[in-house]
Each structure stands twice: as structure tokens, then as C-alpha cells.
């Protein structure tokens, strides 16, 4: 009876160790996945900021280089 209890205990411990190892692997995978998502998000954010600043610089230089043309109003002819 004592032997049977030891076997059950060691079996339960082995099962808990296996579950613990599975949880560690799952946690590691989730952490890696989260890190990848953060990395991609940061890269996209930096690219967006860079593109926005480049576009703003381009449009402001374009405004300075091209003279503004105002539409000419035609006056109605008096009869």
C-alpha cells in the first residue's frame, strides 16, 4: 500500500512538472510574440512619424517655392 501511494505521488509530481514545463514554454512563446508585436508597432510608428515630417517639410518648401496665384474675377460688363 505504501508503495502504491509512492507511485501515485511520483506520478502526480511528474504530471505537475510536465504541466509546469508546458506553462513555461507557453509563457515564453507569448512573451516572444508580444515582443515581436511591440517591435513591429514601434517600427511602423517611427516610419509614420518620419513620413509625416518629410511630407510636412515637402509641402512647406513647395509653398515657398511656388508663387501663389489668385483667381482673377471678371467684372460684369455694363450695358
Give the key terms:
79 residues, mainly alpha, 1 helix, 81% helix, 0% strand, rod-shaped
Write up what this structure looks like.
- The chain is an all-alpha fold and 79 residues long.
- The chain has 1 helix and no strands.
Topology of this structure?
Blueprint (H helix, E strand, L loop, with lengths): L1 H64 L14
| Low confidence ranges | none
Mean of pLDDT: 84
Distance between the termini: 123 Å
* Strands, count: 0
Q: What structural class do helix, strand and pairing data support?
A: mainly alpha
Please state the CA-atom Rg, rounded to the nearest Å.
35 Å
Give the helix proportion (percent range). Answer: over 70%
Shape: rod-shaped
* SSE succession: H
- Give me the oligomer status: single chain
Largest sheet: none
Annotation field: number of helices? 1
Beta fraction: under 5%
Region (Disordered): 1-26
Task: Give a quick rundown of the structure.
Residues 1-26 are annotated as: Disordered. It contains one helix and no strands.
Amino acid at each position: 500500500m505504501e508503495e502504491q501511494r509512492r507511485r501515485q505521488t511520483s506520478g502526480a509530481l511528474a504530471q505537475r512538472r510536465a504541466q509546469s514545463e508546458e506553462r513555461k514554454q507557453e509563457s515564453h512563446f507569448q512573451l516572444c510574440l508580444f515582443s515581436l508585436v511591440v517591435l513591429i508597432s514601434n517600427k511602423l510608428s517611427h516610419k509614420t512619424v518620419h513620413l509625416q515630417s518629410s511630407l510636412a517639410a515637402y509641402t512647406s518648401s513647395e509653398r515657398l517655392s511656388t508663387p501663389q496665384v489668385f483667381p482673377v474675377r471678371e467684372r460684369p460688363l455694363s450695358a
